[in-house]
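residues and backbone:
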Amino acid sequence: MKELTDIALNAADSGGATYADIRISRHRSQDIWTREERVQWVENSESYGFGVRVLVDGTWGFAASHRVTAENVADVTRRAMAIARANKTVLRKRVELPPVQKQIDHWQSPIEKDPFKIPIERKIDLLLRVNAEALKVKGAKFCMSSMRFLNEEKFFASTAGSLLEQNIYRSWPSFTVTALDESGAEFETRTVDVPPMGLGYEFVERADLIGLASKMAEEAVQKLTAKSVEPGKKDIVLHPTNLWLTIHESVGHPTELDRALGYEANYAGTSFLTTDKLGKLKLGSPIVNIKADKTIRSGLASCGYDDDGVKTSEWHLVKDGVFVDYQTTLEQVSWPEYQAARKAGGLPPADRSYGCSYADSWASVPFQRMPNIHLEPGKKPLTLEQLIADTDDGIYIVGDGSWSIDQQRYNFQFGGQAFFEIKKGKITGMLRDVAYQANSQEFWNACDAICDERSWEMGGSFYDGKGEPGQINAVSHGCSPARFRKVNILNTGKNA
C-alpha cells in the first residue's frame, strides 16, 4: 500500500500539485432477507479500487480505477492532474486549504465479532426463528426479517505526510410484522425498534430479536382496533426511536454548510439556516443542546479520520437553544462566507475542519457529509415514566415512520410506528392514524422537557443520500425521550 501511495503522491508533486491524496479501499456488504418460512435472498458484494485527488492552481481534479497496480496508479494520477487543469477553465472560486496536520494512525470500529465470519446458515436460522415467533400471535399473518452488514477497509495517504488505515463495520438486524383483521380488508405493520449500529455481530446477538418478535406482533394486532386520533394541538412525548429522524431532517441537513450556502441544492434543497442566522437564531428552547460527534462509540458515522485525513471530533451545532455552527470539511474552513458569518455572529474564527469529508466508494469524490448528531440529555433527573406522569393531554410516539419536509428543511410532517394516548399522566390506550406537523424552529422552541442520560439511546440510518451523482452515508442520532408542547396533530386515516 505504501509503495502504491508513494507513486501517486510523487507523480502529483512532480506534476505541480500543491496538494494530493489517494484512498485505496475495499467495500463489502452482505444482505439476508427472509419471509415466514423461506429465504428470499442472500447477497454478497465486494468492490476494490482507488481514487486520487489533486489540487492544481487552486482547482480540484479527481480520477479513480479498479485496477490497483503501480502502472495504473501513475496513469490515474496523471489523469487527475489533467482533469484539474481542464476544470480551471470554469473556475469561479480558487480552492485554498488551511494547513493540514500530518497523521499516522490505525483505527477500527469497536467490534467483538466480525459479521462476515459468522456462517450464513446461523444468521438465516435466527431470522426464521424470529418469523416463527412473531406468527404465533393471533392476527399476525406475515413477517419479513433481514440482516445487513457493511465493511469499509481504507488506506489513505496525502502529501501532508499522513498515512491512515481504517476498518469500519456497520450492522443492522430488523424485521417487520403485518397483522390482518378477520375480514382480511385491513392491515397494520410494526417494524422492530432496533437501529443500525457501528458494531459487529455481537450487536445482533444482544438485540433480543426473538424476544421482541411477539411484542411487535402484538402491537401490530392492537393497531387494527386502536382508536383513530382526534386532530388538533397536543403535547407529544417522543421516544428516541422516533426523535432521531426528526433530528436528522430538521437539524442535521440544515447545518450542512454547502447546503446553507446553496452549493448543494439539487438533492433535497438548500437550508433555512442561512449564514446570517449563525450565532443569532434562537433555534430551540434554552434546554436544547445539539452536538455533532464523529467519535462516539458505535456511531454509524464514527471513524478516526475523515476522507481529508482530518482527525474527527465533536462540537456544538446548537448551544442553549442558539444556532452556533455548521458541519465543515478542510476546504470549507477557508470559505470567506463562513468566516464572515462567524465574525458577524460573534463567534471566533474557524481554525480547523470538523472532519466531515466522506466518499461512499473509492470511485466517489469526497465531500461534506453529515456526522452523528445528538440531542444532549436533560440536566435535571427525569425518567420517561416521570415525563409521561407530568403530561396531562398528549401522545407518546415510538418508532420512525413516514416523513416529509420542504426544500429548506423547515416545514415538516412525521409519523411513527406506535402511538399511545396520554390522559392525566397515564397511558390510556393505543392510537392510530397519527402524524405531527410543525416547522423546525417552532418545534424545537416547543421542547420543554428532556429525560436525563439514563434513557439516552441512538437511532440512525444506513441511507442518508446527498450529492449529484448521489452518494449514501450512514449516520446515527442519539437522544433521550423529550416533550414538545402544543404540536399540531394530523389524522392520516382514509376516513379523516
